[in-house]
């Protein structure tokens, strides 16, 4: 198999695990991120472990003006991608993020940048009438909570964007998968208080690959977060606004 998958934000733990899950299924992998040295090491590791083609390139989600040129370079290197995994994200300090400049960065990294690059991917897949998009959102986007409402708002916006893409691209045969992880053992969550039932990046990566194969629309990882967030979304606002979540 020589079908290429583009992994955006490829040096994160979830992205690495997802790349490995797809490489294990025989896909060629293009890794994109801001740390060129680390991208090179990861590309070599995948090539040696799974005997697949790999490539890598610099990508910064927070610089939308570079995205058109970047996507053209990916197309040139691969001959056309079959899928894309958007694993870009930035949590930031929830208190500092209430005001600029951090507020702006949280929205740039979690919504504006991802929407910018996925627009190029969507046009590509729509023209080919095949392909898939995976966007990693968060359970934080399901309802605004005082503990992280800026991050949650950005991720909630990304979820709506992915839903709109799915609606737009369905007639072209292009699939859009929205992934909503709960707590995952990554550098972004390390040291945060109140974590429970934390999933491994490897579990998340394997679930994503299986969900693409099964043509799913939305998944929660681990699965029980779907029920947790259903309960949280069902709490009446008159009660919810009194809670410390």
What does this structure look like?
The chain has 245 residues and is α/β, with parallel strands linked by helices. The chain has one domain (4-240): NAD(P)-binding Rossmann-like Domain (Rossmann fold). The chain is 46% helix and 16% strand. It contains 8 helices and 7 strands, in the order βαβαβαβαβαβαβαα. It has a 7-stranded parallel β-sheet, sandwiched between helices. Strand 2, helix 2 and strand 3 form a beta-alpha-beta unit. The radius of gyration is 18 Å and the shape is globular.
Helices and strands in order:
Layout: E1 4-8, H1 13-23, E2 28-33, H2 36-50, E3 54-58, H3 67-78, E4 81-86, H4 102-128, E5 132-136, H5 149-169, E6 175-181, H6 201-213, E7 218-221, H7 225-234, H8 237-240
Parallel strand pairs: 1-2, 1-4, 2-3, 4-5, 5-6, 6-7
Helix pairs in contact: 1-2, 1-6, 4-5
């Amino acid at each position: 198999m020589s079908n290429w998958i583009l992994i955006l934000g490829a040096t994160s733990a979830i992205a690495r695990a997802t790349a490995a899950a797809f490489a294990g299924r025989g896909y060629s992998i293009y890794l994109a991120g801001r740390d060129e040295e680390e991208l090179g090491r990861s590309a070599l590791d995948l090539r040696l472990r799974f005997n697949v083609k790999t490539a890598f390139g610099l990508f910064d989600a927070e610089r939308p003006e570079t995205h058109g040129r970047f996507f053209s370079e990916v197309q040139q290197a691969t001959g056309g991608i079959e899928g894309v995994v958007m694993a870009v994200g930035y949590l930031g300090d929830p208190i500092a993020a209430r005001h600029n400049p951090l507020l702006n960065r949280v929205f740039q990294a979690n919504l504006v940048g991802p929407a910018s690059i996925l627009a190029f991917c969507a046009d590509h897949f729509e023209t080919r009438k095949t392909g898939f998009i995976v966007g990693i959102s968060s359970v934080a986007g399901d309802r605004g909570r005082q503990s992280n409402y800026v991050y949650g708002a950005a991720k909630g916006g990304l979820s709506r964007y992915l839903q709109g893409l799915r609606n737009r691209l369905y007639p072209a045969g292009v699939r859009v998968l929205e992934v909503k992880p709960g707590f995952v053992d990554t550098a972004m969550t390390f040291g945060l208080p109140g974590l429970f039932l934390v999933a491994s990046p490897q579990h998340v990566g394997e679930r994503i690959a299986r969900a693409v194969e099964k043509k799913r629309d939305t998944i929660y990882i681990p699965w029980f977060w779907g029920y947790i967030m259903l309960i949280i979304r069902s709490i009446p606002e008159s009660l919810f606004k009194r809670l410390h979540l």
